[in-house]
């Protein structure tokens, strides 16, 4: 960074500012985390210089002797981490992995490209119910994701009053729509998935079953939530959320699908692998194999449950009443999630607005998503999360005080009230 300061002070300044923001605030975005210095070292290394289109041992460029070893090591560690190494390589029921996807969205699209024909039918959790854009999101007016442009999508939803997945309704929709691919996994669902039930539903309509474990892959690796592997044909993941690696993606699949998946990743959708990401991912996977990572993941869940308790005790409601994983959905109605997010940001607490069951607008939803992976990495424990709940409560009260204002005035007023509150606190402390 010293060198960068000399060569490009503008960028160095922005990096330093962002790092300072990350250090000085409370990071509650459920999909974010802090990587280790070792992961960061690999990510910022000379691996970024190398082209290596193709697969290990079958590259379109020379000079890949070390890159081949690195990608093999990364694949091996990925399979070991999820206990997928007990089948022979040529056994169709064994698992393979591709670690080249640039991130979670390209990983998902590569699976669709590999296993479906254009306009085949897919069924995933609807975005307002907590699903991800790449699972086929569209509105009545617009096909929002490429998945919904190139494939026909009909979502399933959570029960609007409980916020829980409704598997009977899902089964009915699947019978009606007959998807080729059923997708489990979400960006904002705080409860366990019944993978066995979903496998049964997929089988009953002749669909393949994919699980996108992007959010929970670190928790799966540590064994603190259920594993999808005994039930799925394909499992995709990002690597930068609870897994605490660099931004990247992975696709695990039964061997019989691996050729098609490898082809879809390259040459169909991507070019040269991002070797700096693959190197950093290998480091993160080794970290995740350590007993200390298992303790970390257990703490992430304990902390999410402590935060839930803290909010419930202060009179708030949570979608589904609590959490089994790393995230919770805080019901801030009658306030808007957008406004609560804004006030909290002014106070240095980063969250994101989120739809909760029954919401009709994604821009003005009634919920805020909160996650514990990042602050758990910083060493916070249950008692600390009770304090976080208190900060959120104070933020909510501030948001209430400024709620009637226009967007522009809202921000100023929230800031002013925040300063008043700080001054009041300071005078209490000096008394
Ligand atoms: N799948 C799920 C369930 C996600 O939550 C996300 C990102 O939040 C993705 C896929 C996409 O990941 P990326 O942002 O890395 O493309």
Automatic annotation (TrEMBL):
Keyword Cytoplasm among record annotations: no
Principal EC category: transferase
GO annotation, cellular component aspect: mitochondrion
CC cofactor: pyridoxal 5'-phosphate
Domain of life per record: Eukaryota
Molecular-function annotations in GO: glycine hydroxymethyltransferase activity; methyltransferase activity; pyridoxal phosphate binding
Catalytic activity, as annotated: (6R)-5,10-methylene-5,6,7,8-tetrahydrofolate + glycine + H2O = (6S)-5,6,7,8-tetrahydrofolate + L-serine
One BP term from GO: tetrahydrofolate interconversion
Record's keyword terms, sorted: Methyltransferase, One-carbon metabolism, Pyridoxal phosphate, Transferase
Domain Serine hydroxymethyltransferase-like: 4-392
Pathway annotation: One-carbon metabolism; tetrahydrofolate interconversion
Record PTM N6-(pyridoxal phosphate)lysine, positions in chain: 241
Function: Interconversion of serine and glycine.
Family assignment from sequence similarity: Belongs to the SHMT family.
Protein known as: Serine hydroxymethyltransferase
């Amino acid at each position: 960074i010293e060198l960068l300061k000399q060569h490009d002070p503008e960028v160095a300044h922005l990096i330093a500012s962002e790092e300072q923001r990350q250090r000085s605030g409370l990071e509650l975005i459920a999909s974010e985390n802090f990587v280790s210095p070792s992961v960061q070292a690999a990510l910022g290394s000379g691996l970024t210089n190398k082209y290596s289109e193709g697969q290990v041992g079958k590259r379109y460029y020379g000079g890949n002797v070390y890159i081949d070893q690195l990608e093999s090591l990364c694949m091996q560690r990925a399979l070991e981490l999820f206990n997928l190494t007990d089948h022979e390589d040529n056994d169709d029921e064994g698992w393979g992995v591709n670690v080249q996807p640039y991130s979670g969205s390209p990983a998902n699209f590569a699976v669709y490209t590999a296993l479906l024909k254009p306009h085949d039918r897919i069924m995933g959790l609807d975005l307002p119910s907590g699903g991800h854009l790449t699972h086929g999101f569209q509105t009545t007016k617009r096909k929002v994701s490429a998945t919904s442009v190139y494939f026909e999508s009909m979502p399933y939803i959570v029960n609007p009053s409980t916020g829980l997945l409704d598997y009977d309704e899902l089964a009915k929709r699947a019978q009606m729509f007959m998807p080729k691919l059923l997708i489990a996994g979400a960006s904002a669902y705080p409860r366990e998935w019944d993978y066995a039930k979903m496998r049964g539903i997929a089988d009953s309509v002749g669909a393949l079953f994919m699980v996108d474990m992007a959010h929970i892959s670190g928790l799966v690796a540590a064994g603190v939530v259920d594993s999808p592997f005994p039930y799925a044909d394909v499992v995709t993941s990002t690597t930068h959320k609870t897994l605490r690696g660099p931004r990247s993606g992975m696709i695990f699949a039964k061997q019989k699908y691996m050729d098609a998946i490898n082809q879809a990743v390259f040459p169909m959708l991507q070019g040269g692998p991002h070797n700096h990401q693959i190197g950093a991912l290998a480091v993160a996977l080794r970290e995740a194999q350590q007993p200390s990572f298992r303790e970390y993941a257990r703490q992430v869940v304990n902390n999410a449950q402590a935060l839930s308790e803290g909010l419930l005790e202060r009179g708030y409601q949570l979608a589904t009443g609590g959490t089994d994983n790393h995230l919770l959905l805080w019901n801030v109605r009658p306030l808007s999630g957008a406004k609560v997010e804004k006030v909290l940001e002014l106070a240095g607490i980063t969250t994101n607005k989120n739809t909760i069951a029954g919401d009709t607008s994604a821009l003005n939803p009634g919920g805020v998503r909160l996650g514990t992976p990042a602050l758990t990495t910083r060493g916070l424990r249950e008692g600390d999360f009770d304090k976080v709940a208190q900060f959120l409560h104070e933020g909510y009260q501030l948001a209430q005080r400024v709620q009637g204002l226009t967007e522009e005035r809202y921000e100023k007023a929230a800031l002013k009230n925040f300063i008043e509150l700080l001054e009041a606190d300071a005078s209490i402390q000096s008394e």
